Write the structure tokens for this entry.
Amino acid sequence: MTGRRRARTAFNADINVTSLVDVAFVLLIIFMITAPMMQGGVQVQLPRAEARPLQPEKGVVVSVDRQGRIYVDQAAFSYADFRATFRAMVARRKPGAIYLRADAGVPYGDVVRVLAVIRASGVRDVGLVAEEETPPK
């Protein structure tokens, strides 16, 4: 055996990226599934309407939940606090639009009072957000 030479094998220094790509795709799928759940927001059951519903994009979202609490984006306000501070909020943020989301169980008068405060602050572009109504079969 001393006369025989061992064959040397060359080392392979390539990186196997197949498993890395698999992990990246799994993470991408997980993030795609969980991202809509993490948007958060105020839980309101929007009324259904036959017209095409508005989807809040850029601007301030004002929500009124079933208990009558008013939220500006995620911050909760009583009606008195909302009325006192909303004009200053609009002056500071200068939003392009205001989107009003109100639960279907909120009395119409409460929605109108919130809408009146929004309009009194100088905002003219107010969108009412609703869910699309499913046509009867």
About this structure: The two ends are 87 Å apart (CA to CA). Helices lie at 18-34, 79-93, 108-120. Residues 18-34 form the longest helix (17 residues). The mean pLDDT is 78.
